[in-house]
Amino acid sequence: MPRLLPPRFYRRDTTLVARELLGCTLVHVVNGERIAGRIIETEAYLGIEDRACHTFGDRRTDRTRSMYLPGGHAYVYLIYGLHYCFNVVTRSEKEPEAVLIRAVEPLEGLDFIRSRRRVRKDKDLANGPGKLCEALAIDRKCDGLSLNGEELFIERGKKVEPTLITASPRVGVDYAGDHALWPLRFRIASATPSRG
C-alpha cells in the first residue's frame, strides 16, 4: 500500500527535504485516475533570507499566501504568464520556505500525459517545472492544497543514496546576486538535467 509522506516530513530543514524528495512519487488524481511521476530534480528556496525566494524580506502577496501555510501544502504559481510551477511548502508558518519540483520521470497515466505533452521523446514529457505541471495537470487550482489529501500528494519512494545526488546552483535566479550561486539544486546523478 502506498505510504504518503506525513506532515512532519515537510516541517524540517528545507535543504534536507529537497534532497529526500528525490526518488519519491508525486501523484495528482485527475477524474479518478492517478497521474504520477518519480521526482528526479528539486530546488530549495530558503525564505526570508534568500533573495531568490518569493518570500524574501517576508514579502506577503496574494501569490505567496500559500508559502505561509505549515509545511506539507502546495504552492503553485504562474511564470512568464505561461507556465505553472509546483512547490512543496516546508517548515512552519513563520518560516515561509519551499522546494520547487523541477522534473519528474512519468510512471502512471502515460496516455494522459502524452495527450497533454505532444513531444517526440518520452524523456521530454516532464523534464522541467512548467512541463511537469502541464503533464500532471497541476495549475493554480492546486495552490494551497494539503499534500496529505486525496487529490495531490507525494508517496515514499526508494531512498536515493547521497552519493547519487548532485548539487549545483539554482536555475534562472541571476537577479538574486550571490544567492544565485548557492548549491540548492538537487538531481539524481543518472537523470538528465531539466530544461525549461
Describe this structure in words.
The chain has 196 residues and is an alpha+beta fold. It has a single domain (7-184), classed as 3-methyladenine DNA Glycosylase, Chain A. The protein has four helices and eight strands, in the order ααβββββααβββ. Strands 1, 2, 3, 4, 5, 6, 7 and 8 form an eight-stranded antiparallel sheet that branches. A hairpin with a 3-residue loop joins strand 3 (74-79) and strand 4 (83-90). The model has no long low-confidence stretch (mean pLDDT 94).
Mean pLDDT: 94
Topology pattern, helix = H, strand = E: HHEEEEEHHEEE
* SS content category: alpha+beta
Helical amount: 10-25%
Could you say what the CATH architecture is? Answer: Roll
What is the first-to-last residue Cα distance?
Answer: 34 Å
State the shape.
Answer: globular
The largest sheet is:
8 strands, antiparallel
**Domains counted in the coordinates: how many?**
1
CATH topology, anyone? 3-methyladenine DNA Glycosylase, Chain A
Roughly what fraction of the amino acids lie in strands? 25-35%
The count of DSSP E runs of length 2 or more, i.e. the number of strands, is: 8
Radius of gyration over alpha carbons? 15 Å
User: Given the structure, what is the number of helices?
Assistant: 4
Note poorly predicted spans: none
CATH class: Alpha Beta
Let me know the CATH homologous superfamily: Methylpurine-DNA glycosylase (MPG)
